[in-house]
Structures are given as structure tokens and as C-alpha cells.
Amino acid sequence: MEIQDPRLRSLLRQADRVTDSGKRAAAEQLYRQIIDEAPEVAEAWYGLGRVTAVPTDQEAAYEKAVTLKPDYAPAVRALAELRGESVPAWAEVPEVDDEAEAAISEPPVAASVATAVPATDRYELVCYRHPNRPTSLRCYNCGKPICSSCAVKTPVGYSCPDCIREKEDVFFNARPLDYIIAPAIGLVLSLIAGYLVSRFALGGGFFTYFIMLFVGGVAGRFIGQLSQQAIGRRRGRYLPQVMVAMLILGTAVWLVPYLLLGGLSSLFLFLGPGIFLFVAGGALYAYMK
Ligand SMILES: [Zn+2]
Ligand SMILES: [Zn+2]
User: Any idea which ligand is nearest the CA of 138?
Assistant: First the structure.
């Protein structure tokens, strides 16, 4: 069956390229993605068979490809070779001149590993963080062997925790000074918001709760926006948490005297400010993230 969807066609080309570059785990993920969407594409099943590390999956994938497309020579050949059967003459590798033949006799690493290595050899790798765990997975980025509990699934393949961390470090580009500027702005704004909330929302009724739902969202976003602008929209790994802490601090200082005066018996008084803190904190956190 021809692939109609241009997106799937380009995904398939990409998967074939990834296979040729030897990144089997990443390629497998791509083929499985194509199969999820279009299980009738024989080329994707054949590709999956070339890269998967599970021998039973490999045979099943080739078989599926041949069922879908009985005249698909590479798949017919691969299935016959895998089962140790003779390859039908029509599916043999076509005659080629010497130079091209030399290239074929040395297939890319991925293909030779996937088809030629016996099943037991595939698990000689051990996780680089857990030397007692055999694995067949590798990080698509650095190639280090990883066990299934260390592997982090990404759109392009499984990654090791080190590579994930490295990518995050690029993403989190905040400078040390940003951790002073943004929280300072956050605290000042939170003190203002907290004062107003303590004036108008303390002991309020149902209407107040409703207003606080709205005001909290706006205030949280506003505080996030202003402090992010001040630090050039850089992002910090712990900045969202720090900013929420500033919001709680800025609001709480106005409420503590009332809490001391009224004691725990007056907790319902704080329902309005509580709603404000909850909603504003959530909005602020989401904005800073
Ligand atoms: Zn890695
Ligand atoms: Zn591990």
C-alpha cells in the first residue's frame, strides 16, 4: 500500500535515516509511531524488524510486512534469512557491479546488529548506572547503555538521565542575579496584593470567594509577567518555587496578626485569602515554568 499522508512519508524517510545512522532505539520509536497511525504500511513493519532488539518482535514485524505486501523483496528476504529458509529467486539481491556489491556486503551497523547478532549477545550490555542490570537499550544521544528504569522516553528515542539534565541546563538559563531580582519584584507585588486581600477578603462571604478566584488568577499572572520581563525572560530551574514562596510570604505577613488575634477558631475568616493564595500561586507557578 502506498503511503498517502506526506507527513507519514517523511516520518518513514526519517526513520530509515536514523536506522542507517545506527540509532536503533530512536528508529524503533519512529517506526512504532508510524505503525500506530498507519498499521497497513509494510515499509514501517520491515523497518521495525530491522531495528528492534526483541527477536520475536523482529520475526513478527517481517511477517507482517510480507503479509501486507507479498512482493516486497527486502522483507521476504529478511524473513527467509531469519528463519534459515531459502530466499526465493525473485527476492534475491539484484545483480550489481563489484563496487556496489562491496558496499552491500558491509551493511550499516544498525542493520547488521539487528539481523545478525544472536539474541543472547544483545543483552551483554549493562546499565551504566546499575552494573547488575543487563539491558539492550542505549541512550539515543550519547549511546550509553541504560536500563528501562533509567531510560527517559523522549519524542526521538530513549535518553539517559545525564543527557536529559544537560538539555535542561541549556533550557534553564537564569543567571544568579535573576534569583535576586525576580523574587524581589515578586515579594513587593505580593506584599501589595497581600495587603489588599487582607483588607477586602478577610472574613468575606461567598461573593468574596468568587472574586478571589478571579483576582487570584490575574494577580498570579501579573506578578509572573512583570518579574519575568525584569530578568529578560530567562528561566530558572527553581525560580517557579521561589516565586510562589515570595507570594505566600508577601500575603502571609498581613494575615499573621489576625491569625494570632482570632486563633484557630476563626479559620473560616481566611477562606477568601486562602482561595486567593491557591489560585494566584498556581497561576504564578504555571507562568514561571
Ligand atoms: Zn545520554
Ligand atoms: Zn539503570
Answer: 1
Q: Cα(88) to centroid of ligand 1, in Å?
A: 42
Q: Kindly state whether residues 25 and 123 are assigned to the same domain.
A: no
Q: What are the C-alpha distances in Å from 258 to residues 193, 244, 265, 276? A: 17, 22, 11, 17
Task: Determine the distance separating the centroid of ligand 1 and the alpha carbon of 243, expressed in angstroms.
Answer: 32
E-assigned strand segments in the chain? 125-126, 134-135, 152-154, 157-159
pTM of this structure: 0.50
The domain tally of the chain equals 3
Q: Report how far ligand 1's centroid is from the alpha carbon of 284 (Å).
A: 33
Euclidean distance between CA atoms 205 and 207, whole angstroms: 6
What spacing in Å lies between the alpha carbon of 216 and ligand 1's midpoint? Answer: 41
- Tens digit of pLDDT per residue, the chain (289 long)? 567 777 788 788 888 888 887 888 888 888 888 898 888 999 999 999 999 888 888 999 999 999 998 888 889 988 988 888 888 888 887 554 444 444 444 444 444 444 444 444 456 788 999 988 888 888 988 889 999 899 998 888 899 999 988 888 878 889 999 999 999 999 999 999 999 999 988 887 889 999 999 999 999 999 999 999 999 999 998 999 999 999 999 999 998 888 888 766 677 788 899 999 999 999 999 999 8
Domain holding 29, by residue range, is 6-116
